[in-house]
Amino acid sequence: MMSSPYGYGPVAGQDKNELVKAHMPLVRLVVERMRAQVPGFVTKDDMTSAAMMGLMDAATRFDPSRGIMFKTFAERRIRGAIYDEIRKMDWFSRSLREKQGRIGKTITEMEHRLGRTPEEEEVAEALEMTLDEYRHMLNQVCHLGCVSLNETLDEREDGRNFLDLLTDDSPSVQQRIEESEIANELASQLEKLSEKERLVISLYYYEELTQKEIAEVLDLTEGRISQLHSQALVKLKVKLSRGR
To answer: In the chain, what are the domain boundaries?
Structure first.
């Protein structure tokens, strides 16, 4: 039985409906923010429909005794529902997963051998590709990086994952303590990214700039920003998966 968002007793159906109605603007906000993170053929209607399911799921599962604001909990559930819908649409084929896996495996092996994070040129050479071919591959798996990081890394009952920790919005002291080890590990791995990769991650997740805006700030092409973003997420996924 669900706890009431207004107290700690059971929630009536009307209260659940009120939560959903009151947070409809959140659905639109999350969909707009995520549109740049999904492939072009995933329509806004597809995302909105999935987001609504996420909001309703959040209203059903919400437990205020955990010390989490409903808005925070619902936003995570909405994002998760959108990623789930993308996975169901199976837009990322086995070949894309294999390409992402090749990049991650190559970077990991080179780090062990070199004792440092390899440069792009070195990764490309190890993959027996030109730099342009490697960057093209990064463009191909860029959206898969966002989805798989959200999908595979330390999913919790309250919907938090490593991407949530990039913005560090833990709502309570208790939750901050519980997650301090993970947050510290993430901070440590972020420091191992290249300067440009860290800037892209910071501007994208902390400042919530679009890739086009980041390109203007860093005086790079939007395609180059997409490559840096994708490579950074692949690195984080490999490092953090390995440490769980």
So the answer is: 13-89, 94-243
